Every structure is written in C-alpha cells, then in structure tokens.
Amino acid sequence: MALLKMEEWYDLARETNWTPKYVSEEQLFPAPMSDDHGISIEAWENFDEPYKSTYRDYVNAQRDKDVGAYSVKAALARADFFKNASPHWKALLALHFSAVCWAEFHSASAFARMTRFSRSPGMRNMATFGTLDEIRHGQIQIYFAYEFLKHDAVFDWCHKSSKTENWIIISLRHALDDIAHTRDATSAAIMLNMGLELAFTNLQFVALSADAAKCGDHSFATMLQSIQSDEARHAQIGEPMVRIMVENGKKKEAQQMVEIAFWRMWKQFSALSGIGMDYYTPLEHRENSLKDFMEEWVIGQFGRTMQALGLDLPWYWDILKEDISSFHHANQIGVYVYRATEWWRPIASTSPAEREWLEEKYPGWNETYGKCWDVISENIRNGDYEKTTPIAPPLICNMCGLEVVGTAGEKWHPVDHHVDIDDRRYHFCSEPCKWIFELEPARYKGHTSIIDRVFDGTIGPEPDDFYNYMGQSPAERGTDGYEYRWVDGYDQDQNETEEEKLYATG
Asked: Rounded to 5 degrees, what angle do the CA atoms 284, 288, 292 make?
C-alpha cells in the first residue's frame, strides 16, 4: 500500500487541542504561563510552522548529524589538535563553551514551557523538537569541552560556570532568566526565538564555524554547524507568533518583546562574539570583523525580517549602529585589566600587526582604544604589572551587568544614564538598558550586580572574599594568555619582524 505524503496527514497529526471536561480552560492554561494576550484560541490555532517535522524524520536527521560531529572529533583527538593550538584559540574555546553550554540548557527549559503551555498545537509540536534540540546542544558542547580537561583545567568552567556567582555569569544568567525563564510561553517564544536565535546565533555558530575551519579546528567547526542547522529550524518559531500578534492588533506588544530581548542579547553577544572574532581569532585567520557580520546579518537581514513581519525597526537602531563599532572594544579592555576575575586566560591581542588589522576594520581605533593599550603595554614593558590591574571595581550596568564604558580619547563623552527609585540610584551603560528597566522597575530593581553585592555586605571586605564568592580559587584566577610577550614588538618603533608576526597569529 502506498504511503501518504506528509502534507496529506501532517496537520491532522499535530492537531492535539482538546476541550477540557474536569478543569477549566484557565486552569489548563493559566495566564502567567499561557498568556493569550487577548487573542482568541482560533487565531492561535492558525500558527503555521515554516519547518515542518515529524519525530521519525527528526530522529533520523539528528542521528546523522551526531555521527558526523563525533566522528570528526575522534579524528581530531588522534591528531592532537589542542596541544598545538595557539593561546588565542584556547581562550576562545574556553570562553565559548563556558558561556554557551549552559545557555543551551536555559533554552531547553524555555522550550519545555512552550511545549506545555503554548495555545497553538503547532507551536507545541515545534517546541517539543526545540526542547530536544537544546538538550542535545548543551550535552554535545559540554562533552567536547570535557575532553579538553586532560590538557587544561580551565575547561572545568565549561560545566562549572553556570553554578557560580562570577560577575560575567551573573550578567548572562540575568539576561537569559529575563527572556526565557520568567515569561509566559508566548512571550518566551517571541523573545527567545526572535530576539536571540534568529537575530544572533549566526554570529556565534556560522561565523565562528568558518573561523574554526580556517584555524584547522574541524571538530569545533563541524559541531557548530550541527548546532546551527537546528537553530535555523526552531528559530523560526518566533516568526509565526509575531504574525499572529500583529494580525490581531497586538503589534505594540510584539514590538516591545522583540526590542527588549534583542538589546539584552546584543550586549551578551557583543562581548562573546565581538571579543572572540576581533581579538581571540588568530590574526592570520581573521577576515570579517564583528562589525562586518553585524551589518550584513543583523542590521541588514534581521532588520528586513522584522519589517517583513509587520514590525518596525527598534527605536534604538541608530544607537546599535554606533555600538557595533565601540562597545566590544571597550569591553575587551575591561576584560583584560580585570583578567584576574576571569578563568580563561584573556588575550590582549594588540600586537602591532593586530592593531593594524583593528585600525583597518575600525578606522580611528588607534586614536581611541589604542591609546588605552599604549598605557597598558608601557606599564608591562616597565615591569609595572600592578598598574595594569585597577584597584577599584568597575561601574556595572544595573541591567546588562557589564561595565559602563565609553569611547576613549577625544571621543570620551560619558553620559550618566540613571534612575532613582526607592531612595536608590540605578546606573546603566546605555539609554536602551535604562529604557528596559523603566518599563518594569518592579521586575528588575531587586536584582543586584556583583558590585552591589560588595557594597551591601554580601561579599566580605577582604580581597580573597571577592574571588571566593565567585568560586575562583587562586589557581583559577585569570592571567595573561601569552605571559605578556605580546608587547615585544613595541620596542622596535612598531616595525614587526617575521617572528613577531608569526607569534601574533598563533
């Protein structure tokens, strides 16, 4: 007997809505978890997923992808790639895995909420596969990182990081909790899938995969490609949700969801992908900068997607266009000078050749951020290492949890973004961070940054109290990944030798 084509039975198979008899509709789908945003169930049932999948097809596809990823990994393990990798690349791997592994499990939890509480059966079906996707993404990345432990103990943080109160992890966890864990199923679907996955995963998985292949890390590249193929499928969940909201008079609500999630995730990816692309990728393998990718994939492609769905570009779009050329450079300085608070041995990546590349990609870099690195490198050459580690903690944004920074040099024009509530002043790195806080102050005002915890006595007054609170033993406190040798080229009037060029590229 001939088998039916999927399109002949798919809709029937997924229609799993029912009329409850023993509980009310409100009990089955409580508003805090299943907010319908005033839209009828009939409208939600119009959800139509772009990527239609069945369990059989899903399992077959995932099996094939896992076979490919793990096979390449086994081959690379035999080739002993890691031992020969540059400190640049090792720092990038440690930063990626420690930030992304547990973010995947955060997403799995959000998808599970969508699976249970979404009003649309099609949405629940897609979210089921999304849950499985994210569990797989977390497991495969922790496994790949675990294999590095035999070479370097810092990779323990790929599993440990999410369980700590390290200031960087606090920042990431707060952002993910906001858009994924504390929202109803509809809001989480739009915020997570539109504001995170559709907008930014290309940066960390497609672009980074290409860089990994150039560096010879084919295991990492294949793993990232395997993950991104899933992201491309279930990231589309947000699009039909937005269409339903817009078509039913809820454009304002959908617009705000996307704007909140997008900005919160931009701050995280500007630090993660920005530093990874522009500083941690070995120089000889760098082609496109963060700005290049952001202009093409986010400013261009994602911006057009928003408009095609009936939304407007975020009100802060011009601020974003400036931020893609600035924030991660300032953040890189902060990461480096506060390197003792990180675990992955940060790389300065400002040798003469690297500065030339940065100036080419970001005209004016030498006269702004380069001036800061001039001071840092001079202190290192003089042996004044203590002058490269500030004695005071930085001012931390009360929304994104990252440093409040600005553009150095003549462009230094700091703006005090703040809000006074309940006899307390909250500080922010930008107008969008301040705007998000002001939308729902009751939602955010109870959260404390690492600096708040110092001043309120949560963290003790002794220097070791700070590190102990963050879960960092003396051996886990970050140091310069190249043991300060990157400054060697400065004593030759910026004339780089072939040896230095080789050193700078790893």
From this structure: 160
Bridge partners, residue 111, by sequence: none
DSSP characters for 380-429? Answer: HHTT-GGGGS-SSPPPB-TTT-SB-----GGG-----EEEEETTEEEEES
The alpha-helical segments, DSSP class H, found in 118-250 are 121-146, 157-160, 167-176, 185-192, 199-201, 208-214, 218-234, 238-247
In this structure, is the dihedral angle defined by the CA atoms of residues 123, 127, 130 and 132, taken in order, positive or negative? negative
Q: Rounded mean pLDDT of 286-308?
A: 94
What is the Cα–Cα distance from 21 to 43, expressed in whole angstroms? 22
- pLDDT for 151 equals 86
The length of the chain in residues reads 506
Q: Residues 6 or more apart from 445 whose CB is under 8 A from it?
A: 421, 422, 424, 426, 437
3-state secondary structure at position 479: coil
What CATH superfamily is the domain 55-504? Ribonucleotide Reductase, subunit A (1.10.620.20)
Our measurement of the distance from residue 100's CA atom to the centroid of its chain's CA atoms, rounded to an integer in Å, reads: 7
Given a cut of 80, is residue 371 above it in pLDDT? yes
Phi-psi region of 457 (alpha: psi -120 to 50; beta: other; left: phi over 0): left
Amino acid at 451: I
Which residue in 503, 221, 209 sits closest to 349, CA to CA?
503
Examine the pLDDT at 496 and tell me if it is beyond 60: no
Q: Which tens digits make up the pLDDT trace of 215-265? A: 888 888 888 888 887 877 776 788 999 999 999 999 999 999 999 999 999
Q: Which tokens hold the place of 263?
A: 């900005």
Place of tokens 């966890």: 173
- pLDDT for residue 414 is more than 80: no
State pTM to two decimals.
0.91
User: Other C-beta atoms within 10 Å of 383: how many?
Assistant: 9
In contact, 170 and 182? CB cutoff 8 Å:
no
| Tokens linked to 397 | 């944004």
501 pLDDT more than 70? no
Give the pLDDT confidence score for residue 485 in this predicted structure.
Answer: 85
Rg of the chain over all Cα atoms, to the nearest angstrom: 24
Residues with Cβ within 8 Å of 278's Cβ and at least 6 positions away in sequence, in order, are 286, 289, 290, 328, 329, 332, 349, 358, 361
**What does the buried/exposed string (b/e) look like for 386-410 if buried means 16 or more CB atoms within 10 Å of the residue's CB?**
eebeeeebbebbbbbbbbbbbbbee
pLDDT at 338: 93
Closest CA to 54 of 89, 97, 92, 13: 13
- Which residues face 418 on adjacent strands? 427
Runs of H (alpha helix) within 217-351 = 218-234, 238-247, 251-275, 290-293, 303-308, 317-323, 327-337
Adjacent-strand bridge partners of 425: 420
Distance between first and last Cα of the chain: 61
